[in-house]
Amino acid sequence: MKFDVSHIAKLANLTLNPSEKNKLEKELEETLKFINNLNEIDTTGIEPTSQVTGLENITREDEAIPSFPQDDALKNAKLTHNGFFKVKAILNNE
Amino acid sequence: MNKLNEHTIKQAREGLRRKDFSSVELTKACLEQINKAEPSINAFVTICKKEALVQAKEADKLISSNQDLPLLGIPIAVKDNLSTLGIRTTASSKVLDDYIPPYDATVIKKLKDAGAVLLGKTNMDAWAHGSSTETSDYGTTKNPWNTNHLPGGSSGGSAAAVAADEAIAAIGTETAGSIRQPASWCGVVGLKPTYGRVSRYGVIAMASSLDSPGPITKTVEDSASLLQVLAGKDEYDATTSPLPIGDYTLPIESKLNNLKIGISDEYFIEGIDVEVKREVLDSIKKFEEMGAKIEKIKLFDPRYAIDVYTIIQRSEVSSNLARYDGIRYGSEREKFGDEAKRRIILGTYALSSGYYDQYYNKASKVRSVIIEDFKKAFEKIDVILTPTSPSLPLPIGATNKSIMFGEIADVLVEPSSIAGLPGISIPIGFAKKLPIGMQIIGPQFAEELILQVAGTYEKKTEKEEWRKIKPNL
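Above: the input entities. Below: the structure tokens describing the complete assembly.
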């Protein structure tokens, strides 16, 4: 099996250098080989479990409550502008 | 007489109430021990000396006006993946090197409301990815019993801090083994509560369907009193259970009459350390002497749990770590370490189009099989006893040999984690001067029961010679 690590890295928004790509490709292969035993278990007709609490549709009243003051919310940001988070442009030539 | 920092929560509470010493004195004793031990064990990422002394002074004021809170004036260390208002929280990753949370995790709020003094933030595997602390971006924590050995992980800093008497108690978090395994390797008590018993709000998320914060302590009694503070429904975590919490601090009985204990050969796994096996079997005999009935049961091979856990955990990791964009807080994604990148890549692959059924869906079905298997077992028996770890604490550097190191080290705790069950690891002795732990697993929300069983064992063995040994730091 051959993995397209570049494609997966793009999905995961990770920038990898060529040596990292090679290493991760090998390690991914190794890990998948290691965890390849589940097919030995017959799961016909078995429902998957995604949570163990048995709780469903937990809701609360939709009420406005005080949240962080703007200053607190921005305190950890590396780039801000007039009380907003500043991000790099995501659209070009518009 | 114990030194102040060597006190348990119970001893410290009694001493504070009798005014034998003040919270400031108790806190200073812990800070002095931190000064002394940190150069050799590196259990902390951040030490909150100034803040702790302010809180201790506050506590002393309340004590002198006869206020009574469950943890009033008790210095506690917390894992660095618990958000602390105004105090740097890194999850041991350089991505969050300068992150100062604007709010407290529910666990932290509960500790503060109970009067605890926050000593500092303990080291861990970065993002809790590992079972050794070797993936921390702030250096490896060393095992206080032998600094050439690993403390286990991911809550290795919390377990080492308690074992080294740097703190009266500590908080860890567990996804599959991260409380019990380091507790076992450091010779302390570690309780992983039922998933949903303790709030995850403000815990830097690893695998959201598994994460469970819990106490790491010197005694079972302390574990119970901390759980009493931490447990309960939280409106900020929709997965917390509405079931009423138990009375965990009930007096410990001295007999275990009619208790049915299940033992499974599958958990004395191939390759298990012979001394670990011998000590655990010895301890099981002591349970019989206490009146318990031992029954052989057959459990689903725990090795399959490695596959299930790896797939589910990596998938949830890739999703949870997607939020770190360096825009609102923290640094850019380039700063993720090797282990985080490895897990993000595998998780993204397992969830990607065309592979979901083969990996995540299949693993979630086998998860159902494991849950059903435990349910059936608990129809016949009350608790299950197994070794916590198949090995003694391994030497520093052991993780370099296998990228699956953590999963192999945690094979005996992964099945119960996957099923959301509570488990407690307690120390039962030493081999080669390194600690050995045994775990007691119970049905969902049976914390009261497993604490009783663990407490009774602790009481029966309290006079044993090995309990008097302290790490030589």
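Note for the figure: The first helix of chain A runs from residue 5 to 11.
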